[in-house]
Design brief:
This protein is α/β, with parallel strands linked by helices. It has twelve helices and eleven strands. The protein has an eight-stranded parallel sheet with strand order 1-9-8-6-5-4-3-2. Strands 7-11-10 form a three-stranded antiparallel sheet. Helix 3 links the parallel strand 2 and strand 3. The structure holds flavin mononucleotide (FMN).
């Protein structure tokens, strides 16, 4: 089956104008396969994969979806890896020491967490073998040379914009589709034209989507806080070509969402925190170094969600990894990023399996 070089060719192969958002750390090809088999676009997050594991996952997608010509998306980050800053890392460790002590972790060396890698030549080499139908990026686009390679595979290229300026930049630099990431979206803010903590100018989806529609000619996919059918319908009526939905998939059996995360989401829903509100979620840079939306937890309350103590992306997560693992083993989410909203959470979205 030929690849969908254009949005309309891809759309013709989807029963539902819905993309399952790639969510690094909480899902793999199992969820992507299930979603694509159900008629929407499943996504494989690759930010935590190396060349070997990416190759394995793409083999699975190709084996399960290829024979039926069902499309799928592979997603990469495009950040600049930071300079090591030992002083800042040491200050972060000192800030975390009081939390580590009760777990007997005070003197232990900090195990490096799996770090998110930007898209690079070794990963493009793997894509060359599989030629995925769709490739999406977060934090901008890769270098022109790498992007040309991806487009040479026949892959449709999508990337997230959080402002009109970013959407125009993506259009000018070769994206085929722009994802409008509203401020209520779970996971990392996808901004790339401003400094990491500068959230100024970012708007909720109901303002971002019409602004992007007016400014760019590319198809726009709406993302952020779309957890039930009326919200999806409103986005489509505003002119979105499709929606990208993340949080609503977190309780699916096919997701790898950890038990404490699932419990936190269910608790938040039961306590009525379903509507986005300052008490329920916040943007925080504690867990990776870049702002991401998470359910409030102990670390966010005590250190402040945007504390400057956390080192640059993606290094902040390293020092937290052991602490998080110990706490999660006891059923505590004190140190875990918990994305974020609860409306519409379900084991199966309404359209699933139709
Ligand atoms: C737990 C989690 C992890 C995420 N990881 C990624 C990722 O790896 N790559 C990416 O492009 N977007 C990622 N996102 C953001 C989504 O692409 C999307 O913008 C967001 O899920 C939409 O908002 P919603 O969660 O309210 O549906 C993630 C979102 C969540 C909730």
């Amino acid at each position: 089956m030929p690849h969908p070089h254009t949005w309309s060719a891809l759309r013709a192969r989807l029963q539902h104008p819905l993309i399952q958002a790639p969510m690094a750390g909480v899902q793999d090809s199992v969820l992507a396969v299930a979603v694509s088999q159900a008629g929407a676009l499943g996504s494989l997050p690759a930010a935590l994969l190396n060349a070997a594991s990416l190759d394995r996952e793409l083999h699975i997608l190709q084996r399960e979806l290829g024979p039926r010509g069902l499309p799928y998306n592979v997603n990469f980050f495009c950040h600049q890896p930071p300079e090591q800053d030992p002083e800042r890392e040491a200050a972060w460790h000192r800030a975390l020491a009081p939390y580590r002590e009760p777990w007997g972790l005070g003197a232990e060396p900090v195990a490096p967490a799996p770090q998110r890698q930007p898209f690079q030549a070794a990963l493009a080499d793997v894509l060359a073998t599989h030629r995925p139908p769709v490739v999406s990026f977060h934090f901008g686009l890769p270098s022109a040379a790498l992007l040309d390679r991806v487009k040479g595979f026949g892959s449709l290229v999508m990337s997230s914009a959080t402002t009109v300026d970013e959407a125009l930049w993506l259009q000018a630099h070769g994206a085929d589709v722009v994802i409008a990431q509203g401020l209520e979206a779970g996971g990392h803010r996808g901004h790339f034209l401003r400094a990491d903590h500068d959230l100024e100018g970012q708007a909720p989806l109901n303002r971002l989507l019409p602004a992007l529609k007016a400014a760019v000619s590319l198809p726009i996919v709406a993302a952020g806080g779309l957890g039930h059918a009326p919200a999806v319908a409103a986005a489509l009526q505003t002119g979105a070509a499709a929606v990208q939905v993340g949080t609503a998939f977190l309780l699916c059996d096919e997701a790898k969402t950890p038990a404490v995360h699932r419990q936190a989401l269910v608790r938040a829903a039961a306590s009525g925190a379903a509507e986005l509100g300052p008490g329920a979620t916040a943007l925080t840079r504690l867990f990776s170094g870049r702002p991401a939306r998470s359910l409030f937890n102990r670390l966010m309350r005590e250190l402040g969600p945007m504390s400057p103590l956390a080192p640059a992306f993606p290094l902040a997560g390293g020092a937290l990894a052991v602490l998080r693992a110990r706490a999660e083993a006891q059923g505590l989410d004190d140190f875990s990023s918990r994305g974020p909203r609860t409306a519409g959470l379900c084991r199966r979205p309404q359209w699933w399996g139709r």
